[in-house]
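Email to the structure team, subject: Lantibiotic ABC transporter ATP-binding protein model.

Hi all, the expression group asked for a predicted structure before they design truncation constructs. Nothing fancy, just the tokens so they can compare against earlier work. One-line instruction: predict Lantibiotic ABC transporter ATP-binding protein, return tokens.
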Amino acid sequence: MQPYILQTSKLSKQFKRQKAVAEVSLNVPAHSVYGLLGPNGAGKTTILKMVTGLLRPSGGEILFAGEPWSRKRLGEIGALIESPALYGNLTASENLLVHAKLLRLPKERIAQVLDTVDLQNTGRKRASQFSLGMKQRLGIAIALLNQPKLLILDEPTNGLDPLGIQELRELIRSFPTQGITVILSSHILSEVEQIADHIGIISGGRLGYECAIHPDEDLEALFMKVVAENRGAEGDSHA
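Reply from the structure team: attached below.
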């Protein structure tokens, strides 16, 4: 049986009277790309923020590598949620140096992650001059600094042109071979279908489907069915 690096059991989040996430039980296999699919406002970002400690769950449990989640496990999780937080007046290396110092990591990691995301030749170019795709890759480099076992990417291809999407797709597919599990959230079915090994479909704050991707599966029909079944359920307006 393939071990799970992350599992949630009846994970829930309530904002005042709004239930953003309702008893979601995810199972993310180690060394895979897990696609968290759902329309905008489904609750995807809220789930990822709970996994990364940015939000406290209202109920349920999170297991990391088979053990109850605690803040000490954050050192094994890298995340790019929403837009990368970059210093526009600094170079790629300088941005990474700031984070390396905060995390007390050796400077050698900077060159390693720049090479991983193919930003090793940006020289003195400031982050404010980067294309959107380069900014996303720099955000991923920051998330990789601490050599995480789990990498969480929230809608990473948003706004990218076709070339940027292709480059990011190849990068994400390379991570499981390096021992890194990826959770990729998206509302774009075709993108997830080309990258992910497993999918979970969230709609109205609920998990409507979870399984390995099968080549003969009509993912679009499945997605529409799950969304239709949960239409009208309260979702997360911020996801």
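Confidence is low (pLDDT under 50) at residues 233-238. The chain is about 30% helix and 25% strand. Ping us if the truncation boundaries need rechecking.
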